[in-house]
Amino acid sequence: xxxxxxxxxxxxxxxxxxxxxxxxxxxxxxxxxxxxxxxxxxxxxxxxxxxxxxxxxxxxxxxxxxxxxxxxxxxxxxxxxxxxxxxxxxxxxxxxxxxxxxxxxxxxxxxxxxxxxxxxxxxxxxxxxxxxxxxxxxxxxxxxxxxxxxxxxxxxxxxxxxxxxxxxxxxxxxxxxxxxxxxxxxxxxxxxxxxxxxxxxxxxxxxxxxxxxxxxxxxxxx
Length: 222
Known about the structure:
Distance between the termini: 41 Å
Shape: globular
Number of domains: 2
Largest sheet: none
């Protein structure tokens, strides 16, 4: 197959998968049949089978989308300026939110139980991301940008606290909008990480439209 044709096929597959992901994350995939998959992708069964031969191949596609997205994050750079640290921090924050929103505990549990190889592939990518994040934080501490903190605790905070605060029940109970709670969390992390004399150089206007976009997507899924 010509390379440009292969690329077009991959784009179509990815777009079909992205339509399915919100439902998979909410409801899981154990009881889902291929006809349900076609409905959620808004395609005919013929088109579905053109790109995916089975439910397992759909899940392979989902994991590939996530692994590719995780691997897109670049935290290493030869530029050690304060602006570079701020930009990388904001990129890391955005991806942390996206992963918390789009990879549910239900999906991970079902994947581990049913397709352990795919689960391990996804977990390996997440582990590598964690290792790169640790290196980034430690580099920032060494270069006097970040406070001397327990970097593993900061990572754990994303795994636990971030998932909690984007839950609809938390938002309703505390009468707070998803946009506000995400910006509050961003501010908390910024204060935790950056030394007080470095915070003033961070341009928050770059992260606000990112948070607004994610907040709209989360609100639409409730």
